[in-house]
Amino acid sequence: MPELPEVETTRRGISPHVSGRRITSVTVREPRLRWTVPEDFARQVAGTRITSVERRAKYLLLRGGAGTLMLHLGMSGSLRVVPSGTPPAAHDHVDFRFDSGRVLRFNDPRRFGSMHWLTVDPESHPLLAPLGPEPLSADFDGGYLYRASRGHRVAVKVFVMNARVVVGVGNIYASEALHRAGIHPRRPARRIALARYEALAAAIREVLLAAIAAGGTTLRDFTDSDGRPGYFRQHLTVYGRAGEPCGGCGTPLGHEVIGQRATYFCRHCQR
């Protein structure tokens, strides 16, 4: 499932090809996404000149003078930039044709992605309004996590994966950051001190920035015609490595299900 670094990589990949360009037409081949694409969607979007491509949580915001195109990649979605006239492949559900002669093509085998045309401030939309701060913004630090955690009995891993607390800390990145900060994923959120939350906030930033940096090496994939998404392989220290030695102490890494999600950690290094 595309997480924040993958979505940020997508934003960086498509932005040079669509910013400043006008959408001349939209083709909706399959409207049955997570929410059905409205019948007048193509008419509303056509003619828009994209002024910027932004990201809020895992949503892409293609802003224009008359409104904003809000896209979510869902569990299996991807975007590619292809020449106009490129035959659609299976699961290529929506095309945005630009005045450059290129097409921004949305592919989504499982159809959990979504797209909305907004004529109001996106931050007021019900999907964005309740979200917590961006983990790479100045609004996010250890003090914020400490204050937000008071009274929360849930495990800290569940806490930091709650998008109302902070956006974009998916399952992989939560495990990686907690290991880097030396915090056991089952520890109750309310029982973690400020200093440890400062370490965790720093770790979250570090693992996300490292993942985004790794994604930068595959930006060329966004203009490939073979359907490869512009995502990337990551170097993971704990996730998916149960039984392997911890890089810090050599103890075999553990595996549990916490909050219905696979969790990996070191029983010795994480307290």
Helices, strands, pairings?
Layout: H1 4-18, E1 23-28, H2 41-45, E2 50-56, E3 59-64, E4 68-72, E5 78-83, E6 92-98, E7 102-107, E8 114-118, H3 142-149, H4 156-160, H5 171-181, H6 194-215, E9 254-258, E10 261-265
Antiparallel strand pairs: 1-6, 2-3, 3-4, 4-8, 5-7, 6-7, 9-10
Helix pairs in contact: 1-6, 3-6, 5-6
What does this protein look like?
By secondary structure, the protein is of the alpha+beta class. It has two domains: 4-124, N-terminal domain of MutM-like DNA repair proteins (Alpha-Beta Barrel); 142-265, Helicase, Ruva Protein, domain 3 (Orthogonal Bundle). 24% of the residues lie in helices and 21% in strands. It has six helices and ten strands, in the order αβαβββββββααααββ. Strands 1-6-7-5 form a four-stranded antiparallel β-sheet. It has a four-stranded antiparallel β-sheet with strand order 2-3-4-8. α1 packs across α6, α3 packs across α6 and α5 packs across α6 (194-215). The two termini are 29 Å apart. The relative contact order is 0.15.
Quick recap of the structure?
The protein has 271 residues and is α+β, with helices and mostly antiparallel strands. It has six helices and ten strands, in the order αβαβββββββααααββ.
